[in-house]
Amino acid sequence: MSCANPTWGTPRIIGELAKLGITVCKATVDRYRMRKKGPPSPSWKTFLSNEAKGIACIDFFTIPTANFRVLYVFIVMMHERRRVVHFNVTENPTASWTAQQIVEAFPWNTTPKYLLRDNDCIYSCQFSARVQAMNIKEVKTAYRSPWQNPYCERLIGSIRRDCLDHVITINERHLRTMLKSYLDYYHRCRTHLSLDKDCPEPRTTDPPENGDVVAFRKVGGLHHFYARKAA
């Protein structure tokens, strides 16, 4: 039964045998049924970990302004050190505008091997053609599966919780200024558990002999950076 139906799993075989008046336990079927030959397929998590150096991810998120306009923020992040290599803000995103952002994010020989994105309609044929011309392979997440783009989703959540949820956005210029200030803090000062409690731009340890601990205001005082400074 297992040989004739290679796609059947253990529960399916147990159910079929039960209809024939044969009662067996799961362990028995697991022991005798045929197994597929060949190496197992890597999981999605394994793919993200193994190819981290060559993966970039992109996404949009929206921010309402004080006068009820909606601004779209586009971010491009590299997986390896969680670095945001590019961001931009617009009120009317288009496929050509989005494709141009990829060109600006990866000049010359800095293109990644893979570009991870969702299935938003903004990524049209024009966008895909531009990415293909840059020798980047698009990897699309499954529909309604934001967990398959976890680093980008986590970054967007951090931007909201650490910065944008605490201020009222006035216009595009104001939003760009806030994001630039936050990303400078994010790259140079904010530690990450996934980076062994280091920053995207590696931060050296400040030993006690360097002096007393001093706090420096970051992101308009929402956060602080701590360092040692001799008296």
Question: Could you describe the 3D structure shown?
Answer:
The chain is of the alpha/beta class. It has two domains: 1-38, no CATH class; 46-195, Ribonuclease H-like superfamily/Ribonuclease H (Nucleotidyltransferase, domain 5, 2-Layer Sandwich). It has helices at 10-19, 26-32, 44-50, 95-105, 125-133, 150-162, 172-188; strands at residues 55-64, 70-78, 83-90, 114-117, 137-140, 212-218, 223-229. Strand 2 (70-78) and strand 3 form a beta hairpin. The chain starts with 9 loop residues before the first helix and ends with a strand. The relative contact order is 0.10.
Which overall shape is indicated by the principal axes computed on the Cα atoms?
Answer: extended
Helix/sheet category: alpha/beta
Strand order in the largest sheet: 3-2-1-4-5
What is the β-strand count?
Answer: 7
**Which second-level CATH architecture of the largest domain applies?**
2-Layer Sandwich
Give the DSSP E fraction (strand runs of 2 or more residues).
15-25%
Regions with little confidence, pLDDT below 50 for 5+ residues: none
Give me the Rg, rounded.
25 Å
- Listing every helix as H and every strand as E from the N terminus to the C terminus, the arrangement reads HHHEEEHEHEHHEE
Q: How many discrete domains?
A: 2
Q: What is the mean pLDDT?
A: 91
Counting DSSP H or I runs of 4 or more residues, the number of helices is 7
Going by CATH, the homologous superfamily of the largest domain would be: Ribonuclease H-like superfamily/Ribonuclease H
The fold-level CATH name of the largest domain is: Nucleotidyltransferase, domain 5
Distance from first to last alpha carbon: 80 Å
The helix content is: 25-40%
